[in-house]
Design goal:
By secondary structure, this protein is an alpha+beta fold. Among the domains are: 1-84 and 119-150, Immunoglobulin-like (Sandwich), CATH 2.60.40; 345-549. Helix content is 29%, strand content 20%. The chain has helices spanning 7-17, 99-104, 167-171, 181-185, 292-299, 333-340, 363-375, 381-390, 393-406, 454-461, 463-469, 472-487, 492-517, 524-549; strands spanning 32-33, 38-40, 44-46, 48-49, 54-58, 69-70, 75-77, 124-131, 141-147, 159-164, 188-189, 192-193, 216-223, 229-240, 251-255, 265-266, 276-277, 279-283, 311-317, 320-329, 347-351, 354-357, 417-421, 435-437. Strands 10-13-14-15-18-20-19 form a seven-stranded mixed barrel. The longest helix has 26 residues, at 492-517. It is globular. The protein starts with 6 loop residues before the first helix and ends with a helix.
Length: 553
């Protein structure tokens, strides 16, 4: 029953999607499904029911209408995995899938992605609508069915996320957010890219576009590792990230909004704490290991900076297997408010020196602090005392010690963020002092950088940190914290146990990811070697830290 579409079928599908939608009837109720979304051991017959009209349905994730399949009786639901790949075979999702184009533009280093050479795992997506005799449509109802997945490799212990949207929202040349699309076509002449030819991530493309106009509606269902539904409903999705937008797969942001049905989603048992959030991120990142962020944000729990809670997740996009991600809250007012008890309207966040949460004028709150510390001698007691009033110094020490210890090379020129309350309140964190936020450390923990003098690099890149280092009290506390990390938080024994557990839990899921996206270049041996390399980094790093920072100077 699965509709396998070739290029012509996709083109027709996207053309239909561009037509003006019919007004939904408020009196027509959604189609009723005899079985809820979820996991089933054996095939079954699905029945649909509705009042006041005829039912039409699709099995390709497209939005149904009266041109879709008429419902005349039960639908046979079985494991759809043997069916032909459709969306997994689209090559416009990354410039890295176009070797001739890369060669013509002198791109020498790139991801060797390939489309799958065998059917990927698939869920059956059923979307249905009721249409009355006047042509009015009910709201679209949908469900996703995973049949026989209990015996499949790579899913045990993993949360599962299904994202379903009309394929045109992702892959259409004009409106699709996941493709190079028309935006890229307008920048290419005779096969050559205008502008910076060798930086593929900077090539203009649909997937590099930002803003609300590039958000698309989607039906999302999230299941925990036991197969129970954590949350489901209608949400918005956008592509997330910077350079990673050119990669495959891509990071996605999920938005809960009133226009989709609810302004928040409940994270249930996904994280250590339960949150009611309006934004989540499905984070794939630049690394094939998916380990560095998880290690840093887990082992540093209790240190004095904000971090995310990460949940491993296998994603299905329009019914097709789409890889392994970390599901994480976004550092926005709703998350910071619930984590620290500050009114969300009283939260200011800056990222790379620019306001991420708050008002444009809030940027001055940050710039004034940077200018004061950078332009005043922090060796003077009064100046340093003032800095301690503006900053949570322990947060600063913990944060910089952690980043320095792991040798993060893509920092602090990138991936640095802070937050504070705008006004003082009576909460523990409502004191208007800036505190640091930890995220994206995938460029740390590299064995080839184990001897890196990251403190020196950070001082050269961050004038506020350079100013603070001149204060003997701050410098001494920072060095002491680095030594404490080597014997506690990041002790070789603790890290080794963590990595061993990670390998055991994630190996099967990562292997399936490699087979889907990097089967020509990555194997499970590469995963183990990468994990072992990080393990070795933390075995060698304490000696470097002791030699460099263990003295009194």
């Amino acid at each position: 029953m699965y509709l396998a579409l070739g290029a012509a079928g996709l083109a027709a599908l996207f053309a239909f999607a561009a037509m003006q939608p019919v007004q939904q009837s408020q009196s027509l109720q959604q189609v009723r499904f005899s079985a809820p979304s979820g996991f089933y051991d054996a095939p079954f017959l699905l029945e649909l029911a509705a009042d006041g009209g005829d039912i039409y349905y699709t099995l390709d994730s497209s939005e149904p209408d009266e041109r879709s399949i008429p419902y005349t009786g039960p639908i046979w639901i079985e494991d759809a995995s043997p069916n032909e790949n459709v969306y997994s075979n689209i090559t416009d999702v990354s410039a890295y899938l176009k070797p001739e184009l890369l060669e013509k533009n002198n791109v020498r280093e790139y991801h060797h992605y390939q489309v799958p050479d065998a059917p990927v795992d698939k869920a059956t997506v059923v979307r249905a609508v009721c249409v009355d005799k006047h042509g009015n449509r009910s709201p679209v109802g949908d469900a996703v069915y995973f049949v026989g997945f209990g015996e499949k490799h790579g899913y045990q212990g993993m949360n599962i996320m299904s994202i379903v949207t009309d394929p045109a929202n992702l892959f259409d040349a004009t409106k699709g957010i996941y493709v190079l699309g028309d935006t890229f076509a307008q920048t290419v002449k005779d096969g050559h890219v205008e502008g910076d030819k060798t930086n593929v991530f900077a090539w203009k493309a649909n997937y590099n576009q930002r803003g609300r106009e590039w958000e698309r509606p989607a039906s999302i269902c999230c299941f925990d590792a036991s197969g129970e539904t954590v949350f489901s409903g209608q949400f918005g999705i956008r592509i997330q990230g910077k350079a990673t937008r050119a990669n495959l797969p891509k990071n996605l942001n999920i938005y809960a909004r009133k226009q989709y049905g609810s302004p928040t989603l409940d994270t249930g048992n996904l994280f250590d704490a339960r949150y009611s959030l309006n934004r989540l991120t499905l984070y794939y990142g630049p690394s094939e290991l998916l380990l560095a962020d998880y290690l840093a944000e887990t082992l540093t729990d209790g240190m004095d900076f904000a971090d995310r809670e990460l949940a491993p997740c296998v994603m299905f996009l329009d019914g097709e297997y789409w890889g392994v991600y970390w599901l994480a809250p976004r550092f926005k007012a709703d998350y910071l408010s619930q984590k620290y008890g500050v009114d969300p309207r009283n939260i200011v966040e800056v990222k790379h020196g620019h306001v991420e949460v708050g008002q444009d004028e809030d940027e001055a709150l940050y710039n004034d602090v940077v200018e004061f510390i950078a332009n005043h001698d922090m060796r003077a007691p009064d100046n340093y005392a003032r800095a301690c009033e503006l900053l949570d110094i322990q947060s600063c020490i913990d944060y910089f010690a952690m980043e320095i210890y792991i040798g993060n090379s893509d920092w602090p020129i990138n991936n640095i963020a802070l937050w504070r309350s705008r006004y003082r309140d009576d909460t523990a964190f409502g004191d208007c002092r800036w505190r640091w936020i930890l995220y994206d450390v995938e460029q740390g923990m590299h064995l080839e950088w184990v001897k890196a003098n990251t403190m020196k690099d950070a001082a050269n890149r961050d004038p506020m940190f350079a100013g603070l280092l001149k204060n003997e009290s701050f410098s001494r506390a920072l060095r002491e914290r680095l030594l404490e990390l080597s014997t506690g938080t990041f002790s070789p024994e603790r890290v080794s146990v963590f990595i061993a557990d990670y390998k055991q839990h994630m190996a099967a899921a990562i292997e399936k990811k490699y087979q889907r996206f990097s089967h020509a270049t990555m194997t499970l041996d590469d995963f183990y070697e990468g994990c072992d390399s990080i393990d070795q980094f933390f075995r060698e790093r304490p000696e470097i830290i002791m030699k460099r920072y263990g003295g009194t100077n």
